[in-house]
Amino acid sequence: MKTPSPYEEECLFCKKRILENCFASSLNFAAIYNIAPILPGHSLIIPKKHFISLIELPDDYIAEMMVFAKKATSVLKHVFECDGFDWTIQDGVSAGQTVPHLHLHIIPRKPLDLPESNEWFAKIPENEKQLIDSQHRERLSNDEYNAITSKLLLAAKCMGL
Ligand SMILES: [Zn+2]
């Protein structure tokens, strides 16, 4: 069983508000919309409990996470009418993880949404190339964020999530 870390109370993704704003959840995971999406639909799958790394997750959590992420991706596909997705985890500081709470990025993709289909990194400023988790990208307003989350919530409920 995971022991609480000293900064757990300070963790961005452990804050109660985050889980209250999720658009879908499973027993141990929640799907939330990114406040600063790289592309429309950019969402995160996070464990409800504080885990920093994928390596710390029990095997049954891994299985649940992938199944839940697949379902959340179906919701995004429906709402954002996209035909592809980037899934990425920055696991560890050297990999660009800035929020020390495990999260899987799901980034919906459409044809010609970026100059090179395999290069969504191009959306990240040169000096922040590692920071997919960047706190510096332009953020949505509360109204924009709530409107998108409401739409996702409705779609997730309609799809049985
Ligand atoms: Zn946390």
What's the SSE blueprint?
Elements: H1 16-20, E1 24-25, E2 29-33, E3 43-47, H2 59-80, E4 84-88, E5 104-109, H3 142-158
Antiparallel strand pairs: 1-2, 2-3, 3-5, 4-5
Helix pairs in contact: 2-3
Bound molecules: zinc ion.
Question: How is this structure best described in words?
Answer:
By secondary structure, the protein is an alpha+beta fold. It has a single domain (8-111, 125-158), classed as HIT family, subunit A (2-Layer Sandwich). The chain has 3 helices and 5 strands. A 5-stranded antiparallel β-sheet has the order 1-2-3-5-4. A hairpin with a 3-residue loop joins strand 1 and strand 2 (29-33). Helix 2 (59-80) crosses helix 3. The two termini are 27 Å apart. The relative contact order is 0.19. The structure holds zinc ion (ZN). The site of zinc ion (ZN) has 6 residues, from loops.
| Unreliable parts | none
Largest sheet: 5 strands, antiparallel
Helix content: 25-40%
Shape: globular
Structural class: alpha+beta
| CATH superfamily descriptor | HIT-like
Ligand species: zinc ion
The number of domains: 1
- Kindly report the average pLDDT value: 86
The CATH architecture name reads: 2-Layer Sandwich
**Count of extended strands:** 5
